[in-house]
Amino acid sequence: MLEVRARDLDGREVIAVIAVNPMDSDSVLATFGALGVLVVILAESGLLVVGFFLPGDTLLFPAGVLCAATADQAPRLVLWQVLLCAAVGAVVGGQIGYLLGRHGGRALLARTSKRRVRDAAARAEKLLARYGYGKALVIGRFIPLVRTVLHPAAGALGVPVRTFTIWQIVGGLLWSQALVLAGYTLGASVPGIDAYLLPLVALVVVLSLLPLLPVLTESRRSKRDR
């Protein structure tokens, strides 16, 4: 809930309460615009349990669509502002996640009772082991859930600061800018794209899970061999 205070023409204070659902991209974008992109992406990129409940891909793609002008509607968001906020949120969020991981992240992951968090942490570790630090930090940005826990996991596992910083910036910029620009391109070239946002976002999420297939296949194979 967001409380807004103002005064009417007679000088009396008026309090307006605006309902905001941080897990709903439409609600976030309608209320906060580009600033909402910055805050949500920052949290989703490294604040562990909190980030699991926030939209990432499903916020950036629609934000890009809303930056595009159509024949009968002006842009509802400013493209450069969304790109900048997405980049800052992704990079700063990733670095915060890493610092949290270095200072007690492993203990926090061990104590959590949420199965989704534990599973995502295990996948993040396997991703780092399978692809190496650089590739894992770039690929992991495009995988929901894993993205949130990857940076704290990297900190907890002792990934060197310089290596982590370079590759998480590369991954963060590629992920955030690509999704916003993909949404913008579709919004500018396909009339009435708003009506197809849900299936398009679902497709983006499915595609983003593809890098996990080798890790999951390897995990199942190792379980069968035991």
TrEMBL record:
It is found in: Cell membrane. It is a multi-pass membrane protein. Keywords: Cell membrane, Membrane, Transmembrane, Transmembrane helix. Pfam families: VTT_dom. The lineage of its organism: Bacteria, Bacillati, Actinomycetota, Actinomycetes, Kitasatosporales. The chain crosses the membrane at residues 28-54, 78-101, 164-184, 196-216. The keyword Transmembrane applies. Belongs to the DedA family. Signal peptide: none annotated. It comes from Streptomyces osmaniensis. Residues 54-184 form the VTT domain. The keyword Cell membrane applies. This is DedA family protein.
